[in-house]
Amino acid sequence: RGGKEDSRGALVVLEGLDRCGKTTQSTRLVANLEKLGHSAELWRFPDRTTSVGQMISSYLSNKSQLDDHTIHLLFSANRWEKRSLMESKLKSGITLVVDRYSYSGVAFSSAKGLDISWCKAPEIGLLAPDLVVYLDIPPEKAAERGGYGGERYEQLEFQKKVGQNYQVLRGPTWKIIDACSPMEDIEEHLQEMVLDCVKTCQEGKPLSCLWS
Ligand code: TMP
Questions:
Q1: Which residues does a 6 A CB cutoff place in the pocket of ligand 1?
Q2: Which CATH architecture has domain 4-202?
Q3: How far is the centre of ligand 1, averaged over its atoms, from the C-alpha of 104 (Å)?
């Protein structure tokens, strides 16, 4: 193993509370990777372009009501409908930078009181990220950032619970970045971590599945 035939792109996930800077940083990261000659794509979950994604979007903007379990499974289904494309992109050598993934799924739903192992179950078998970067921000600081946009989960007390749940999910593939550092510092630090990870995947690190 480790030969050229096993070379693949990296699956990199950015996680964090609402307004932690994930979207800005993931956009910059993809641009930087491309500048350095790597093929990279920016993905995000929920992917609101699919029909499942549209149901999720309508729920998040309070235009529809759904049972907590139901919406949880829709978020998971939204990842499952992208799984095979994700695998083929990675195998073709493209690095995927993903703005939110299964960790958001579990952290947000369990903040509503759902059992954490129940929340994790539908994620079993999705591709496991090679690297999860958590942009760490105190919930109070996130709330100050230009105010929340008014979506369903953008409330301080709820975000505090989400933050606690993220802590429970931290594992060996996680790296924490202080989201209150200057934007340029975060960008640089993130790029360094990701380039390292891209290299190990090019060298043939095997793909694995959640929850490993
Ligand atoms: P976004 O603002 O990054 O588009 O995410 C929308 C909201 O959905 C955000 O508050 C996090 C939440 N969410 C879940 O509750 N479960 C999930 O599986 C995902 C991906 C996001």
A1: 18, 45-46, 60, 75, 100, 104-105, 108, 153
A2: 3-Layer(aba) Sandwich (3.40)
A3: 6
Which residue has the CA at smallest separation from atom 5 of ligand 1? 46
At position 126, the amino acid (one-letter code) is L
Whole-angstrom CA distances from 170 to 74, 117, 134, 157, 196 are 23, 15, 9, 21, 20
ipTM value for the complex: 0.99
Cis-peptide into 80, omega within 30 deg: no
- Kindly tell me the burial class for residue 149, based on how many C-beta atoms sit within 10 Å of its own C-beta (0-12, 13-18, 19 or more): exposed
pLDDT in tens, 85-115: 999 999 999 999 999 999 999 999 999 999 9
Cross-strand pairs, 187: none
